[in-house]
Amino acid sequence: MTKKHPVNEKSKQEQLEQFKTDDRNQALTTNQGLKLSEDEFSLKAGERGPTLMEDFHFREKMTHFDHERIPERIVHARGFAAHGEFELYDSLGEYTKAKFLQNPSVKTPVFVRFSTVAGSKGSAETVRDARGFATKFYTEEGNYDLVGNNIPVFFIQDAIKFPDLIHAVKPEPHNEMPQAASAHDTFWDFVANNQESAHMVMWSMSDRAIPRSLRMMEGFGVHTFRLVNAEGKAHFVKFHWKPVLGTHSLVWDEAQTISGKDPDFHRRDLWESIENGDYPEYELGLQIIAEEDEFKFDFDILDPTKLWPEEDIPVKLVGKMTLNRNVDNVFAETEQVAFHPGHVVPGIDFSNDPLLQGRLFSYTDTQLIRLGGPNFHELPINRPVCPFHNNQRDGYGRQTINKGPVSYHRNSLAANTPAPVPESEGGYAHYQEKVEGRKVRSRSESFKDHFSQATLFWNSMSDTEKEHIISAFSFELGKVKSKSVQQQVVDMFANVSTVLAKQVAQAIGATPPSGEDAPVTKSSPALSQEQTIKKPNTRKVAVIVANDFSSDLPQVLNSLKQQGIQPEIVSTTLQNVKGTDGSELEVQHTFLTSGSVLFDAVYVVGSSSADEKFRKEALTFAQEAFEHFKPIGATDEGVKWLKAVGLDSSPGVVTGETTRFTDEFIEAVSAHRHWNRHVI
Ligand code: HDE
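Output (structure tokens, whole complex):
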């Protein structure tokens, strides 16, 4: 591309603008620009006669349609994305020469795609799985991709095992079941026979694997990378994204119900938040280790099954990313975006993590089949905002029109251009790490401790989080048919905690381990979601209202809105509901179209004119929300209804009997879940 684009926060948007088309109010044409007079009837020999071969319009339309689908991603097929911008807090010149990390006044455009890993493109979104968190920074030095997950470690230590892992977790090949789930024999057989997976399995059995929202999950670069400054000095680094709204999860029963009620739950939430102007924000965090400290830890910093405990190596928050624009077209942008951990800029380099090294091959390779050739970098969403020139030519779908006869280096006919640029002028030069060794296929001794950090994770969980992990294991292994695999997994996780293994064994009828856990010597509070930021902002409340609601209601709703809470009215039909004072409220959902699982809290208002059916529906909402530990509010008739079924006096249930109803309900919503509630 020869056109030079100004590099500012609008540059990517402006670039994309050139490719957009609005078909409204236009004449219908073929792809050759021929105006069409008819589009509903194929060309026939007589009204009841055969269709003619000559019908180029029919053939063009049908051929295009027949080729509309492209292969879905082999992993991370189900994804959703948004545009945004990244702003730096202070220069990171001390650590890196990357230009987009120097100047806090520069806004770098970004495109972020979130995904599940195992499910196919049409699968439900609230399944138990890791989430992809891939960010493309369109910098003035070229695209930088941070292709991470919402879990800081991975199942395997060497990329050569990735096909095995994915074969094991994907639906079993003989019957293509189950979709988007790890609760089946082959996955757990892989786990038991590849014990390096222990740490990540603990995370994927925890609440982290069922996020409440894509806006409320952390992101991790997982591998150790290098930052290199202008003097050539390098530091090891791990990348983090910290959501400004905190890290929050669903409960498993809720997640399963949502899969049926709204399989698009996460994308809808992201889309609507951006449309409403509640822009998702994440702070970029760095953990940094000096090169000379590489061997100072009780784990190998190159091992991707290990995290760096935040209490030992603090996360320095260096900037903020805001997602502020939805895509115009999911296929053109979200589907065609091509990430690659090897898309780096000067100042960012790799470590020898063998998982990362393998990824550096896989991502280009996969785009060749998925996007049909080597020119995927020319697709609008993938184009850098800076110019790019080289001697690559031709291939499927080539769009650039390279001028002149010269397409080779070295040459004299074009004065030996395009020419490499010295490092001092921005040319990328790999960090000159000294490497020596024998050619071997083996694993370093320092990668062989598979359980210490899995135990650290377990020891860092709250009691509620531990209960959830036990029931996740019990659910998943309860679906496994092989008794041998079940037992192998119980035996394996006895190395993490005998408390965990015993309870799971009990639930699935396996033989429990003997022995007790060693006393806890270390935990990492940062790993528990109990410690996370809790805010009322963007929490959705189902407000269950019938005709003849009391005149106080609009004021309560306003107070909730002032705190950033989103009350949505649920009733029997979509007719407006009327208050005793004649005021009206628009109904957004009916009992038929929604369910308590689609909300963060329930507020039962009711009214004396509501019938028995209404009361029952309202109580179904309240009961289910109660079992999911959600905040519940009740005023007016709603208080009587809750009292009648004994739901009124539990933690997180606030009734209109208190004079501070609104404040107390806001407090309950801000607490998110009330785990100290007694649920049978
Ligand atoms: Fe990926 N991964 N991966 N992965 N990965 C892909 O690339 C691969 C790994 C991650 O929204 C594929 O374009 C190998 C770790 C995300 O488009 C493929 C290994 C992490 C996405 C691929 C890993 C990730 C992918 C499939 C083991 C977290 C979705 C489609 C060495 C740090 C990006 C594609 C998007 C996608 C290969 C392991 C994150 C096949 C070989 C670890 C977020 O190239």
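The chain has a mean pLDDT of 96.
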